[in-house]
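Minutes, project check-in

Agenda point 3 was the complex the collaborators sent over. CS summarized: two entities, 986 residues total, and the question is how they sit relative to each other. Sequences were read into the notes so everyone works from the same version.
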Amino acid sequence: MDEVFRDFRLALADGDGYGLAAILSPVAPENDAGRLYAFYRSSNAHQIDGDVRYAVKYSNSIGLSRDESSAWNDVFVSYWKAVGEILAAEEGENMGKLKDGQWASVYEAWKSMTILLIKYHLSNIFPAWSIPCLYLAGKYLRIFAIKADSQSVKVKGNVTFNAGFQDDVVSSIGKNDKLEDAARQLNRMFSLCLGDRAPIEDSRKWGTYYTANLLFKTHFKLNAISLSKNIIRSIQAQADLPTLDLFPKSHQVTFKYYVGVITFLQEDYVQAEDNLTQAWQLCQKHAIKNQQLILTYLIPCRLLTKHTLPTSNLLDPYPRLQSLFSPLAACIKQGNLAGFDAALQAGEDEFVKRRIYLTLERGRDITLRNLLRKVFLAGGYEPLKEGQTEADLIRRTRIPIIEFAAAIRLGMGPDGQMLDNDEVECMIANMIYKNLMKGYIARERSMVVLNKKGAFPGTGV
Amino acid sequence: MSIPAVPWRQQAPPPAYHTVPTQRTLVKPEPKMAAPVSNPPRKVAWPQSVRDYVQRSFAPEAFVQGIDRAEMERKLKDIINEAAEDKALNDVDWENHPLPQEIILQERKAALAVDENRMAWINGSAYDQATPVNGHTNLSSLSPSPKKRKSPDIPLSEHADDALPPWRKTNNHNVFEARITYANQGQADRVDKRQRKNKDKDNFIAQGSSKFSQAELEKRKARFQAPKSGNQSTPPWIPSRVDSDNEFSAGPVVGTCQELEKKYFRLTAPPKPETVRPLVVLEQTLELLKKKWRQENNYGYICDQFKSLRQDLTVQHIKNAFTVNVYEIHARIALEKGDLGEYNQCQTQLRALYSQNLGGNPAEFLAYRILYFIHTCNRTDMNDVLADLTPADKSQHAVQHALKVRSALAMGNYHRFFQLYLDAPNMGSYLMDMFIDRERLAALANICKAYKPDVKIRFLTEELGFESDPECIEFLTVHHAGDFLEQKSEPDGKLTLRMLTSKAGPLFDTLRSAAFSKVDIKGQI
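CS then shared the predicted structure for the full assembly.
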């Protein structure tokens, strides 16, 4: 108890927001693993209010206002209760004797503290520099909510049946009650930050991006990505918000990353590439995991926008990405259709989980393009006419469908055997329609007539 | 509010702190707290025998695998309240009274037995259903017919089709106008429904209309009414509900109505048992409805009847293979009629019911779900469906078909897509009908850009899955491409009709983007 409040006074005296937040952490610091226990044991439910009051108010060496000291008093009492729940739940989990709804009680206790923090920030009783306490509260609110939900799904199952006099049997599937509730609290936090009107030097506006990022994270987990678009919109609408580059880099990277992924999922690959590239450049050198996340989306993005593939140099530091992307990249490069299909299938579960499957799938077009390009190159040149020299050589641009068909059948392996010429034409038509190939199909003559200049745009032939 | 005084409306509302989980403090059995807490206003001095009974229930050796504490406590509460209300607290032989755990176990066994009987019955009926009626099979899985349309529940339209030459058959469902009529009918139904709803409101809500929405009012009412019926009107042999979050949930109604047909009304109060049909009657109702649908094909009537059927199942908490069957049949009928809203409601319910392993045809409806997301171009949901697929799912024919449709469209492979369209299992074609025109326009935009200078109509008919050249021409003319058609004479002297692809390109590009921009996504799953 004493230790906690010594740190508290120090942090207050220094105006150290992150230091203050560390005191309210639900996780013991590494160098003092017993800290939470010690804090919880040092009081009990009857005395905690008095103990904290004494510690905060009557040893008030830093001259807190009455309001502020009683506000901190509330927060710490609430924190003490939450710590009690957390310790009980962790102990239950370690001993395998977790009670039903125990993580939900942790969540509720933590939420009470969070609500207090929000309340005293809203009423301007807490100084703006102490906003990291909100960050911390929000961060763990989300974590506890997820734990509570997964516990309740285990106990009650996924489906709620109607009990009243409804029309239909089932009332809901998929339970995320706590996380949805957490999202509401986080949203309050976000609007509190975004809407703060204090002069910018001393404004809670500096918390906007951190809280926005927390919300993104929550929405992704809830599969409610469309809600995130509203967040982006309201940030864009706030004209007096300082520009993003003035915010801490960690806020910038995460924000850019999420905006990138959101636009990626909306299939706006140009925007996505832009945001993800910025995130990539800003990302801390040693944050391997974050870099990996960014590349997971940036690579498919660039495959579609610029038809570029990751080099093995780029992927070297990330073995997981290496194993996911390099087989695909190799097959695309070779124009190996069967290999591409196999690689896509091999990674399907992981790709789907990351929501990049439907995007990567389009890499098949590039694979096919590369294969057809090889056929074109193998076709050689038109014979020289009289008086023409080597410089006048032009490639053969009238190519029988059967040549392409043979290549595709070979390239697709066993699947290719059932391919008829109409389907081959359909595939070529797609190439032309998507501007991967220039020319046209002359169906009556079973020929593809390719453009003499740049039959395969962007590939040098 | 002029609802006649029913027993469960007379008791005082329960205290707000009813649900406070005191369990945690009850590590040691404390009978004094366990029972009375649930009902504080009535200060009852519990006889020692009752306390002992409670204590025995909580004793560790009485613990039964598979019954959690909450359920046991609820049962215990019910038992004691029941006795208290009958003023029988001192009459019951508490020492020999079965423990709540034992009662629950018995109830479960009984429920199981009922279910098994029912299963046998239903299997029997499914078999009946499979026998040919009017000379043609009406169960999809057993139907060897190569026809595109295979609906188990729609025989009338098929029946009519039998008189037509085979190539007209799908055409019948296919033409654009046909769908428009469906849509209008659906709209008409919806309007009808809305009016009915309003009438309901007039009937049930007090004249001075309130500022609260119907839903809110109902919620509030549920809050105040349910607990009473939970405690009082529930007979002790009905298992207390375990799968609802709502601790006050109303007990199931036990219906006594013997009528087979019933008009659907949205409930605003717990139904009276005499208006609810018990399961045995409902099973006959379903047979009747199937027959009527076959004979009369009156969608308005059938939809209404199915809704009341679903409602009766719900208020009686019937969740078994029969429930699944009802929802499946309603979903299929709604699909056939293009009523996406009703179809979606059934689909959502089915998803949850399948997760309870109650039987039915999960693969068939999973395939519909995939096709539906193709229709709505919903990549997020499509991704989620893909993420949830198990290898077992993927081995199912219908699911495989739907996945092939998806990948063909993703690749722009219209050639394969239209082949799959002609070969859709179950009622997949009805869903594919929703986006077939859109995909035809997309394919045409594609073909117009890739083929020069023209293509034969025959080629388009084959590539785009039309039944005949005239149908293809009709489609083109409806979309104002008539000007781009041209008669040409072949080298062998025959005349063929061709489409001038280079000229028609811009038209189809415009039509294509228009078709994709207005995907109707009402009633999302």
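Noted in discussion: Chain B touches chain A through 64 residues (CB under 8 Å).
Follow-up: revisit at the next meeting once the mutant set is ready.
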